[in-house]
Design a protein that fits this description.
By secondary structure, the protein is mostly helical. It contains 24 helices and seven strands. Helix 2 crosses helix 5 and helix 21 packs across helix 24.
Length: 629
């Protein structure tokens, strides 16, 4: 499923180009540095000017363990003249006076112009003829442009942007917050290690794979009795068999997966309003491809299983986009951007089809009373949305009630997440100016109070006890929260938990099947073969044929810069089955060994599909754009 394409997972947080002692402008360290700060700055940016005092104090405190690197990121549109200042600093660098010019720029009060720069260069004793030539030289312009483009590749959108030890620093800009990050106490090291791991393209897929492997080991070792005891343990409120009394496995599949399906619903909504599915022609190709990727595996499975095992047709229909996009990312530059966009959009439609499959084809016995309660809960969510209630907690409370009602009604409770996603309110983007004024006013008031306290001889820390501190913090929080809608806040908060906790826990509970299965029975081998062929053959064939039909009929547009071999390799990777495939196996075969056989088929088929797709893509030469037709 498409849990990886949330905004925070895709963020560029690692420094793409390492510090180069020959090329970069470096200060401190002297070969003994254990920490580094890379600043992308603009000489006319007032916030860079304010940050320089903190950076100077950090260098003084941590010298010689800290190396400071400055890279140009002039914003000529916001600060006219900033590009000239960057070129002037580079021209001074050619005469070994970069840092003198750098410091002078940040010490000057605006406005100051080119005449002032030349006057200061003269006071430095620079060769003025050479200085003037260097400012206008193509080499200097190229050097500044390279820093600017390098910053954009690193995800820099404004100044100052700081990277600490190669990771973008998004914390507070005060001295003690940055010092704690640089000194790396235990908690900071754990957090840093987690950020480094999460920035890896396939990190979420790797955690999911490790959870599935751990489940297989536990289920096929002397730990098996303890594993089964844990998965089947009853946890809940009330007596066993009552509404709130479920096994650990059921809590993982219905309770925790509701959070995952919430993210799925939010992603579907975002893509349909402003993403790959918002444009009809661009959306048709991945939509039809996803349908083909469901119909073809279903046909293959049913051809081999026409009898009592037919309910397992849905098992090979879902794609694990975490593994698929992870493999594409690991293959690097040989994968065209158009293929990544196509596969991600296909996964969104695949998510929709999986949700509908669970809701329509695998309901339990309906309880009319609970179904009515679920409808009332959904109506309440609609009322909250229409009433423009932007607090998060009312939606969470009603969603819990909705999940319980769906469970009691005989519908999979995880679908409560999708319903909640449909009603979480969004807001139009705010005007930045008033929010900036609000934040600046609060901080200016705190700064003035701090100066008055220092003048009066009071301890600065006593400001925290003054009413102005509470007033300023409330205004800053309000300005920050307005940048994100409730849907955005929930998605940012939940996405890491879904990728690294919720889905692995579900995989641990669902993938623990005994490999000691009897394939000699009449039903076993067709189930196994149907699932494997559905994933390895059905998925790529269905996706390719549906795409070919859409392109030939001119109702769909082929992805840009994608060769035929690229397309086939990506289609093969879509045969990697995901955690929902394991859930569908349990739903299709609630009794007997068939669910375990189907899950083994998912694991074997996914491994084969991943190997086949990766092999095709690794062998593909980089060609000009060729349509899948």
């Amino acid at each position: 499923m498409a849990e990886e394409s949330t905004p925070i997972v895709g963020e560029i947080s690692r420094l793409q180009r390492d510090i180069d002692p020959i090329r970069d402008h470096m200060r401190g360290g002297q070969g003994e540095a254990t920490s580094s700060i890379v600043l992308y700055g603009d000489y006319l940016c007032p916030y860079c000017r304010a940050l320089r005092h903190v950076l100077a104090r950090l260098r003084q405190t941590l010298a010689p363990r800290l190396v400071y690197v400055f890279r140009h990121f002039p914003n000529e549109r916001a600060h006219p003249g900033s590009e000239f200042m960057s070129r002037a600093a580079e021209a001074a660098s050619k005469q070994s006076r970069f840092w003198e010019m750098h410091d002078w720029f940040y010490e000057q009060e605006r406005p100051f112009g080119e005449k002032d720069v030349f006057q200061f260069a003269a006071t430095l004793g620079l060769d003025m003829e050479q200085f003037r030539r260097d400012i206008e030289s193509e080499d200097t312009r190229r050097r500044v442009d390279e820093d600017l483009e390098d910053g954009k590749r690193n995800g820099v959108t404004g100044t100052p942007t700081v990277f600490v030890d190669g990771l973008r620093y998004d914390g507070a800009w005060d001295f003690y917050s940055m010092l704690e990050t640089l000194e790396r106490p235990l908690a900071e090291r754990v957090q840093r290690s987690a950020r480094v791991f999460a920035s890896l393209p396939a990190s979420a897929g790797l955690v999911l794979l490790l959870a599935a492997v751990a489940a297989l080991v536990c289920a096929n070792s002397p730990l098996a009795p303890y594993y089964r005891l844990f998965i089947n343990a009853e946890i809940g409120i009330g007596f066993p068999g009552r509404l709130l009394s479920l096994t650990v496995g059921d809590w993982f599949s219905e309770g925790l997966l509701a959070i995952f399906f919430l993210l799925v619903g939010l992603e579907i909504r975002r893509e349909m309003t402003a993403g790959a599915l918002s444009d009809r022609r661009a959306a048709i190709l991945p939509a039809l491809a996803a349908m083909g990727g469901v119909l073809a595996p279903t046909a293959i499975y049913l051809a081999l299983n026409p009898g009592p095992t037919a309910p397992g047709w849905s098992v090979p229909t879902a794609t694990d986009i975490a593994f698929t996009l992870g493999i594409l990312a690991l293959l690097g530059d040989r994968i065209p951007t158009g293929l990544r966009v196509f596969v991600a959009a296909l996964a969104v439609v695949d998510d929709i089809l999986s949700v509908l499959t669970l809701a329509i084809f695998y309901p339990r016995e309906f309880e009319a009373g609970w179904l009515l309660a679920a409808a009332l809960a959904a109506l309440f969510l609609f009322a909250l949305n229409r009433g423009r209630v932007y607090a998060v907690w009312p939606y969470v409370v009603v969603a819990v009630a909705l999940g319980l009602s769906l469970h009691g009604a005989g519908v999979h409770a995880a679908l409560a997440g999708v319903i909640l996603a449909a009603f979480l309110p969004t807001r139009p983007p705010p005007a930045v100016g008033p929010l900036l004024a609000q934040a600046a006013t609060a901080l200016a008031a705190l700064e003035q109070a701090e100066r008055e306290a220092e003048a009066a001889g009071n301890a600065v820390r006593r400001i925290e006890q003054e009413p102005i501190w509470d007033w300023a913090s409330r205004n800053l929080s309000a300005a920050t929260e307005r940048l994100l809608s409730p849907a955005d806040r929930i998605e940012r908060a939940v996405a890491p938990w879904s990728a690294y906790v919720i889905l692995p826990l579900f995989a641990f509970s669902a993938a623990g099947v005994s490999l000691n299965v009897d394939l000699s029975t009449r039903e076993a081998f067709p189930i196994l073969l149907g699932v494997i062929l559905g994933l390895v053959v059905g998925k790529p064939v269905g996706i390719s044929l549906a795409s070919l039909l859409a392109i030939k009929s001119r109702i769909g547009v082929a992805p840009d810069d994608v060769t035929l071999r690229d397309f086939i390799g990506g289609a093969c990777l879509c045969g990697v089955g995901d955690t929902v495939s394991l859930l569908m196996a349990d739903q299709a075969f609630p009794q007997g060994p068939e669910a375990g056989i189907a899950k083994i088929g998912v694991l074997i088929g996914s491994a084969l599909a991943a190997a086949l797709g990766a092999a095709i893509l690794m062998s593909a030469p980089r060609l000009h754009a060729v349509s899948p037709a």
